[in-house]
Specification:
This protein has helices at residues 2-19, 31-38, 47-52, 130-141, 150-153, 167-187, 192-201, 211-215, 240-260, 276-284, 310-316, 318-321, 348-377, 388-397, 441-448, 455-462, 474-480; strands at residues 58-69, 79-91, 96-106, 109-119, 123-129, 160-166, 220-226, 232-238, 289-295, 302-308, 324-334, 346-347, 384-387, 414-417, 422-425, 439-440. The chain is 39% helix and 24% strand. It folds into 2 domains: 47-239 and 288-334, no CATH class; 347-480, no CATH class. The chain is built from 17 helices and 16 strands. The protein is of the alpha+beta class and 488 residues long. Helix 13 crosses helix 16 (455-462). The strands form 2 sheets. It has a 12-stranded mixed sheet with strand order 7-8-9-10-11-1-2-3-4-5-6-12. Strands 13-14-15-16 form a 4-stranded antiparallel sheet.
């Protein structure tokens, strides 16, 4: 009996001592120790994660940098520039979800952009900050001082809004929109194929974000160290020779891109660049740079980077030139994602529909009826009824140009001019009615001249639009089509 008790006590003692770490861990029980013991001076232990993020069904990436500038006006209150970027992605059988967030803080003032995109087989849904929509409405409508706040005017009750776009509509009108985009690019001297080639050529810069690029370089020193029970730090030291090679490779790629784009000032080689030799001499005399990569050897699904750019800025002279006191960056990547769709939001489709209807009324009022009335006064148009094309032809005969909004069918929409009024009947390009009744210039003048621009005012205007034939697909045509005298 004593022998059994003694054995039992010995087993219990061994278990207690093992739990306390007296006997140590077996191979594989401490991934940090295993990494340190088997480390061969390379970065191969990080490559599986860095190479799989782009192809993963789930990932999260974030980037942030913080900059501190000397303030010559107030040395005790340095200026700040902080930027953070966050992206999370999740793919399923039915589609995928992407969340992005950008926050920029300058001297205490903050700008934020937050968007969640949900793609499925039928539609794409966007969640984004309501302030972005309100800013665009303010700018597009040119309402400098509306009586009613735009948030109240368009019944936007939450900080986030939701916008859904059906794929059928995009597919049906994709060729139309694509053609207009090509025309607009050509108008400004751009060639779509050249743009696509340029985007493809920029892929050469992806290597600088690849661990393999640095792992293959002979002037990079790598070491690993323990941070805590589960976290290790892989420390990359980039000496002067590595920095010189890095700058040389980058300049070669940049010059090649400039040459492929036929830029007139593209140098033939980096040696032609001003101060190239002196810059490389400064780099050769610089101190090594250190990049720390934190990760969990037992959980190869995440890692983070920490980097201090100040030594580089010091070598290049930018530290002194811009009075930079600090410039640090952090990068995080993970093969997991956590995206929570907003539960409190306003349907932006309703607000945009109201905006488009308001815009339709404004176009009919300002671009057609008001212009027609001016032509009547000038003797360009006489009393009678004209199609929009006929009115345009008559104006041209008198040396005047009449712009016809592409949204309206030019051979079916009509202007009626009498001794006392100017009115119009408007039809979309598919010849369905735009408005419930004829619009008269006098009535629209009174409606638009009101001093009370609130929600009731907006609803009075949108009520003029025929709800049965209205479709927000016409919005694409309003902004992207060009004048075409041969359209209906």
């Amino acid at each position: 009996m004593k022998k059994i008790v003694g054995v039992a006590m010995m087993v219990i003692m061994v278990l207690v001592l093992t739990a306390c770490g007296v006997f140590g861990s077996r191979a594989g029980e401490d991934p940090v120790d295993d990494l340190i013991d088997t480390f061969d001076g390379s970065l191969k232990h990080l490559q599986p994660l860095s190479e799989s993020v782009a192809d993963s069904d789930d990932y999260t990436m974030s980037f942030s940098f913080a900059t501190l500038f000397e303030n010559p006006m107030d040395p005790d209150a340095p200026r700040t520039l902080n930027v953070s970027y966050y992206e999370s992605f999740s793919r399923s059988v039915d589609g995928h979800i992407t969340e992005t967030q950008v926050i920029v803080e300058v001297d205490g003032e903050t700008f934020e952009m937050h968007t969640i995109t949900v793609w499925d087989q039928e539609k794409t849904t966007y969640y984004f900050l309501a302030d972005r929509l309100l800013d665009e409405l303010q700018k597009e409508l040119d309402l400098e001082d509306p009586t009613g706040d735009l948030r109240e005017m368009f019944a936007i009750e939450h900080d986030m809004v939701k916008l859904s776009i059906d794929h059928d509509m995009v597919e049906a009108y994709g060729d139309l929109v694509g053609e207009r985009v090509d025309n607009m690019l050509a108008l400004f001297g751009f060639n779509l194929e050249e743009i696509e080639d340029t985007l493809a050529n920029t892929q050469r810069f992806n290597k600088y974000a690849s661990i393999g690029y640095y792992d293959e370089h002979e002037h990079v020193e790598v070491d690993v160290e323990r941070i805590d029970d589960t976290t290790a730090a892989t420390v990359m030291t980039l000496n002067a020779a590595m920095l010189q090679d890095l700058i040389d490779d980058f300049l070669d790629d940049m010059i090649a891109l400039m040459q492929e784009m036929d830029m007139p000032d593209a140098p033939a080689s980096k040696e032609e660049l001003l101060d190239y030799d002196s810059m490389m001499d400064d780099v050769a005399a610089s101190d090594p740079l250190e990049l720390r990569i934190l990760h969990d050897p037992g959980d190869p699904s995440w890692m983070s980077f920490e980097f201090d750019f100040l030594p580089i800025l010091d070598v290049t002279g930018m530290k002194e030139l811009y009075s930079i006191e600090a410039f640090t960056a952090e990068v995080f990547m993970s093969l997991t994602s956590e995206i929570d769709l907003p539960t409190d939001y306003t349907d932006a489709n309703d607000a945009i529909d109201e905006y488009i209807k308001l815009l339709l009324v404004q176009i009919a009022h300002e671009d057609v009826l008001t212009v027609a009335a001016e032509y009547v006064v000038a003797g360009v148009l006489d009393e009678g009824t004209y199609t929009l094309n006929q009115a345009k032809t008559e104006a041209a005969a008198h040396g005047s140009h009449m712009f016809l909004p592409p949204i309206f069918a030019k051979n079916k929409s009509t202007l009626t001019i009498s001794a006392f009024a100017v009115s119009g009947d408007f039809y979309y390009i598919d010849e369905t009615p735009v408005f419930n009744d004829s619009l008269t210039l006098d009535a629209l003048n009174a409606l638009m001249a009101t001093d009370v621009m609130d929600r009731d005012w907006l609803l009075d205007i949108t009520a003029l639009v025929d709800a049965q034939s209205y479709d927000y697909k016409y919005f694409l045509i309003v902004f992207m089509d060009e004048l075409d005298p041969t359209s209906p």
